[in-house]
C-alpha cells in the first residue's frame, strides 16, 4: 500500500515546535536587550545609571547563555524540522550560520564574565553577585577588552545577526518558501 502521498502532505510544511520557537524569540529579544543596555551604558553620563545598565547587561548576558544551553538541549529532545528545500550552498550557509549563532551566544557571555572578572570585579545576575574567580589579570583584561569582548566581537555579532535576518527576509520575500512561518506559531 502506498502511504507516500499522505506523508508528503504531512511533511510538506513543518515548523519548529512551540518550545523551540519561544526559546528562539526569547534569545533574539535578549540579544537586542544586550546591545541596547550596552548602548545606554555608554550614553548616560551618571555613573550610577551606567552601573545599573552594566549590571542589567551582565544579567541578560548570563541569561542568554543559559537559554542557549536550553535550546541546544531541547534540539536533542525535540529535533528541528529539516531545512527548507533550497540550493545546497544555501543550506550549508544556514547550518554554519546557526552553529555560529549558538557558539557566539555561548562564548561571548564567557568572554564578558572574563572581562569583568579579570579586572577583579564581581559579575551580577539580577542582584546576585558572582565573584571574580580570577582576581586582577591585566593581560586577560586587555585581551577581552580589545578583542573577545570589545569592538571586533561587537562587529562580528552584528554582522552575523544581520546576515541571519537578511537570509530570513530573502527566503520569505524572494524565494517565498515560508521560512518565517516555520519560526512562528501562526
Ligand atoms: C529579528 C530577528 C530574527 C529573525 C527574523 C530570525 C528568523 C529565524 C528563522 C525564520 C529561523 C528558521 C530558519 C529555518 O527554517 O531553518 C531562525 C532560526 C534560527 N535562529 Fe533566528 N531570527 C532572528 C534572530 C535571531 C537571533 C538574535 C539569534 C541568536 C541568538 C538567532 C538564532 C537562530 C538559530 C540558532 C536558528 C536555528 C534554529 C534553532 O536552533 O533554533 N536568531 N531564525
Ligand atoms: C551574548 C552576550 C553578550 C553580548 C552580545 C555582549 C555585548 C557587549 C558589547 C557589544 C559590549 C561593548 C564592547 C566595547 O565596545 O568595548 C560589551 C561590553 C561589556 N560587557 Fe557584554 N555582552 C554579552 C554578555 C556579557 C556578560 C555575560 C557579561 C558579564 C557577566 C558582560 C560584561 C560586559 C562588560 C563588563 C563590558 C564592558 C563595560 C565597560 O566598558 O565598562 N557581557 N558587551
Walkthrough of the structure:
The structure is a single chain. With 186 residues, the protein is mainly alpha-helical. It has one domain (17-79, 90-182). Helix content is 72%, strand content 3%. It is built from 7 helices and 2 strands. The chain has helices at residues 4-11, 18-43, 47-77, 88-117, 138-148, 151-173, 179-182, and strands spanning 123-125, 128-130. A hairpin with a 2-residue loop joins strand 1 and strand 2 (128-130). Helix 2 packs antiparallel against helix 3 and helix 4 (88-117) runs antiparallel to helix 6. One protoporphyrin IX containing FE (HEM) binds next to helix 2, helix 3, helix 4 and helix 6.
**Gyration radius, rounded:** 20 Å
What is the average of the pLDDT values? 93
Number of domains: 1
> What sort of overall outline do the alpha carbons produce when their principal axes are compared?
elongated
Q: Uncertain runs with pLDDT below 50, 5 residues or more?
A: 1-11
What's the short version?
This protein has 186 residues and is mainly alpha-helical.
Give the SSE layout.
Blueprint: H1 4-11, H2 18-43, H3 47-77, H4 88-117, E1 123-125, E2 128-130, H5 138-148, H6 151-173, H7 179-182
Antiparallel strand pairs: 1-2
Helix pairs in contact: 2-3, 3-4, 4-5, 4-6
This protein binds protoporphyrin IX containing FE (2 copies).
The site of one protoporphyrin IX containing FE (HEM) has 21 residues, from helix 2, helix 3, helix 4 and helix 6.
